[in-house]
Specification:
about 350 residues; mainly alpha; ABC transporter involved in vitamin B12 uptake, BtuC; two-stranded antiparallel ribbon; about 0% strand; cell membrane
Length: about 350
Amino acid sequence: MTTTDTRTAAPEPVLADRAERPSLGRLWDTWGITAILLLLLALTPLVAPGFLQLENLQSVLRESAYLGIVAAGMTFAIAAGAFDLSVGGQLALVSVVTLLAYGAGGTPAAVGAAIATGLACGLVNAGLITKLRVPPFVATLGTLFVFRGVAYILTQDGPQTLPYDQIGSPFVKIGGLNVAGVPLPFVIMLVVYAAAWVLLRRTATGRRVLAYGSSPAAARFCGISAGRIQLFVFALVGLSVGIAALTYITRVWTADGSAQDGFELKVIAAVVLGGTSLKGGKATLIGTFSAVLLVSVLNDVLVGQGVPSAYQRIVLGCVLIVALTVDGLRTRFAVPGSLRRAVAGLAGRSTDPDSA
């Protein structure tokens, strides 16, 4: 009996050792985009000499906030094996409703309206997917046009704008205030990522999202409700849009149905480029955070160099293609020990025992 117990327990250290072995895929997931971001930051001043000025860096961080906040929510959706194509329409609608609410009730009404409207948009998507069984791609593609259409109806007499005499109001300070030299929108983004990391890595809900994205059938067999997971992730995306809209609208001061056209592609590109697999089951918020900054820095350089918007869209499309390509390559090198084999191959050594 003792011998049997010993034989059963023996492989455990070996399995643990295999699980802890580094792989190219894992290293890329966590630190690959961060390394590219640092390289880009080092080379950017050669192309744009004024990039490292404090005012410009603050502008980049402020600009990255609304994209990054929505990308944090989208990370959960993609990790669950779905994605939300309607976030651009949501941002436009939430921005319009927020300005309407501000005109009616000031800062408290605007903040409440932004959060409530964003969450409502997410629940609409969740209801279509969980109750009517509409595939996420079709449901969110449809609501993208619906949300933008409603925003257009609300602004048919002209875009909603903030009066210039509100420049010193608490609401405007959400987008314009600096905290110890750091833009408040970026501080809000940091808080959102900290909360998202805890939710994903330190709670049962986060583990269920990853388990469902990895294998929906196995997750259902283990008692994980597909409907609850989809309800949670799409409501979370809507909530993130509501928070992001507060940092967006207090910076641009105007909104209508055309606001941030193509925004959903930027968000998905940042999440996938950051290391979250489109197949689901794997997510890295560190990678998403770095990818958002990378996209923001790249956009700042293009705008600063006077690149036409048409070419900026081409660059964004290329970034999305690269993100999808990297997602496939990452899967190839995700096997434990791939890093060791790659290094051995570069050094001209064979890992095949028969060749020794």
